Structures are given as structure tokens and as C-alpha cells.
Amino acid sequence: MDKNQPIGVIDSGVGGLSVLRALQKTMPHEKFLYLGDTARAPYGTRSRETITAFVAQMTDWLEQNGIKQLVTACNTITVLGTDVIRGAHTFPVIGMSKAAKEVLEATGNKHIGLMATDFTVGTGAHRREIQAADPSAQLFGVGCTKFVPLIEGNRFGSPELKEAINEYADALKAKEVDTVILGCTHYPFVREYLQEAFGPGVTIIDPAEATALQAKADLEARGLLRRSGKGSCTICFTGDVGLGKLLAERMLDPAACEFKQVKL
Ligand code: DGL
After folding, report:
1. What is the CATH topology of the domain spanning 7-96+209-261?
2. If you placed Cys at 219, which of 189, 225, 246, 251 could pair as Cys (CB 3.0 to 4.6 Å)?
3. Which pairing describes strands 138-143 and 93-94: parallel, antiparallel, or unpaired?
4. Where are the domains of the chain?
5. Is 184 a catalytic residue?
6. What pTM was estimated for this model as a whole?
7. Interval between CA 139 and ligand 1 midpoint (Å)
8. ∠ CA(148), CA(182), CA(47), 5° rounding?
9. 262 contact partners, CB below 8 Å, separation of at least 6
10. 100-206 shares the fold of 7-96+209-261
11. Distances from the Cα of 127 to the Cαs of 71, 79, 104, 106, 248, in angstroms?
12. What is the DSSP string of 16-34?
């Protein structure tokens, strides 16, 4: 492998762009190749078998495109387990951080909320990791099923989104959480609305930055980090590129990215 190969980044849709933003900030000289399966999002309500099959298609495509590292910028794929990434891939896989350290530093009353897909909440992966670090911490998970279709559909500011935000925030407020993990990479798209619904007393943690630091540490350890030269970013979607680009503008400078449609 050589350092000029791209870093592959995958998600079910546009959510992983919130992680791509953190990756670019942390590693500005890298070349990124993003693949969002927008034609088949959401993944979080699908079965383990279906998600596994979709992920295999994505990773095969990225392998053909010569990536040096894969970042699964999707909690659902991460908690499914990196071993589902089929074949003898040569690249290492960096999953989404659970941000246990950041969360435990932020919480005062140890009542922690997790907003994620049903799939992610159902695995208990965040609870296990946080309670391994502090057994007295309590984690309350809410499957926020309505968010991804509304975000992928560019329905920001719609009454449906407002209603969903209040519904999920109220469920966690009832548990008196003081810290909330955004356990789905789509949710940073609605972070401001969430902060408004929770109020200033609740700290929202986005694990994107911790994930980007892990990706950087892996490249450094393997001598594959680009330390100079211009970075680049190619964003591929399996669905409508016009809509994808519109949504990408909420996270990145679209002028600095190339957009493409791909068929898996
Ligand atoms: N953005 C994804 C995650 O972090 C997946 C959302 C979905 O497709 O349901 O879980």
C-alpha cells in the first residue's frame, strides 16, 4: 500500500458526510472516496442479513478502487461487526467510536441518552462499552426511526421533523439525561434542532471526531498518513446525485468535492 491511495468511507446514505467532515479536518492532505448507498437507505430498519449483503457490495467496490483504509461512517454497520466485511480485504476497517471517554467526561449525573437506529440500540453495544468503563453509568437508548427518511428526503424544517425531534427528546428528558450520544451519523444534520429541544443543560456528543482520530492513528502507525499535498474528496451515491449534493452542502464545501453516481 502507499500513502497516495484514498481512504474509503461508507454509509447507508448521506449521514457519513458528518464523519467525512471530521476526517477532512483531522487529515487535510488525504484523498477521500465516499460511498453512500442512498438508493437503499435506511439500513437501520433492515435485517442483519440484508445489511451484511449491501455492505459486502460496497466494500468490494471500494477494494476495486484501491483504498488504503475503510472508515465505516455508520453506526449500524459498525455494530453489525467489522467481521461482516467480506473477503480477504487488505485494508483495515475503522468503525464508529462509541465515544465512551467523552461521554463519561461530560456527564454529571451519569444518566446518558443514546439516539440511534433501532438496530444499533438493539445490539446494546454502547451500553456495554460505557458500563465497562463505568459500571454506575446508566444508558437510555431511543430508536429514532423517523429521522433518517426525513433527513435523506431533505425535510428540514418540516412539521414531521419537529414532531419527531420532540417525541425522541421528550423520551430521554423523562430519564433526566444530561448527556446524549448521537449514535447515528445522520443525526448531526439535525444537531441544532436537538440542542434546542433538550435545552442548554444537555451536552450532545458526536463521535465523529473521536473516530477521525482513530483513523489518523491507524495511518500513522502504518506509515501511510499524507502529511503534505492537496487533499481531495470524491463523493459517490447510488441514488440521486442532485439530492445528495444538496444535502452534502449542509456538511461540506461542495466546490471542493466531486460528485458521482455509481451502480453497485
Ligand atoms: N447513518 C447510519 C448510522 O449511523 C445509518 C442510518 C440508517 O440507514 O438507518 O447508523
Report:
1. Rossmann fold (3.40.50)
2. 225
3. unpaired
4. 7-96+209-261, 100-206
5. yes
6. 0.96
7. 20
8. 50
9. 35, 61, 236, 237, 238
10. yes
11. 22, 12, 12, 16, 31
12. THHHHHHHHHH-TT-EEEE
- Match domain 100-206 to its CATH number in 3.40.50.1860, 3.10.180.10, 3.40.50.300, 3.10.25.10: 3.40.50.1860
- Please provide the size of the chain in residues: 264
- Show pLDDT as tens, one digit a residue, over the chain (264 residues): 999 999 999 999 999 999 999 999 999 999 999 999 999 999 988 998 999 999 999 999 999 999 999 999 999 999 988 766 756 688 999 999 999 999 999 999 999 999 999 999 999 999 999 999 999 999 999 999 999 999 999 999 999 999 999 999 999 999 999 999 999 999 999 999 999 999 999 999 999 999 999 999 999 999 999 999 999 999 999 999 999 999 999 999 988 999 999 999
* Distance of CA 234 from the midpoint of ligand 1 (Å): 20
Tell the residue nearest (CA) to atom 9 of ligand 1.
44
Residue 137 one-letter amino acid: A
Based on the residue annotation, tell me whether 236 is a catalytic residue of this protein: no
Query: What is the CA(186)–ligand 1 centre distance, in A?
Result: 6
Torsion of CA 125, 131, 134, 135, to 10 degrees: 180
Catalytic residue among 144, 184, 233, 257: 184
Residue 130: which residues within 8 A CB-CB, separation 6 or more? 98, 100, 103, 104, 112, 137, 139
Of 74, 233, 236, 257, the catalytic one is 74
Which atom of ligand 1 lies closest to the CA of 96?
A: 4
| Block residue for cell numbers 445528495 | 244
Identify which of 46, 48, 184, 189 to mutate to test ligand 1's pocket (most ligand atoms within 8 A of the CB).
Answer: 184
DSSP character at residue 157: T
